[in-house]
Design a protein that fits this description.
Blueprint (H helix, E strand, L loop, with lengths): L4 H11 L3 E3 L1 H10 L4 E4 L5 H14 L3 E3 L4 H8 L6 E4 L2 H17 L1
Helix pairs in contact: 1-5, 2-3
Length: 107
């Protein structure tokens, strides 16, 4: 995680209270309109992925499937495992998106 700026931006959002972790909390954030971006772990189950994808598509919230596993996301956020996380602040969404785009350019 030391050089992974995208994951670090999610950690900062969590520390700032601008990120919710967990499927049920993400679905609630999407429903309430507070979620601006949903990040999904790479090893999430198909039913969970479908649930998140359907909710985000219906509410027009961007949903990004990352290369991070549930355990890696959970460790970064200080919890056990985290299948998905919702970012609720536009500045952190921008920070995450820029970091992911820069990583894609470098690879």
């Amino acid at each position: 995680m030391q050089n992974d700026k995208a994951l670090m931006s999610l950690c900062l959002a969590r520390k700032a209270g601008k990120l919710v972790c967990g499927t049920d909390l993400c679905v609630e954030a999407v429903r309430s309109g507070s979620a601006l971006l949903v990040v999904v772990a790479s090893d999430v189950s198909q039913p969970t992925l479908k649930k998140i994808a359907d909710k985000t598509a219906f509410r027009s919230v961007p949903c990004v499937r990352t290369e991070y596993s549930r355990s890696r996301l959970g460790a970064a956020f200080g919890s056990g495992e985290c299948a998905c996380a919702a970012v609720t602040d536009a500045n952190f969404v921008k920070m995450f998106t820029q970091a992911k785009n820069k990583q894609a350019e470098e690879n």
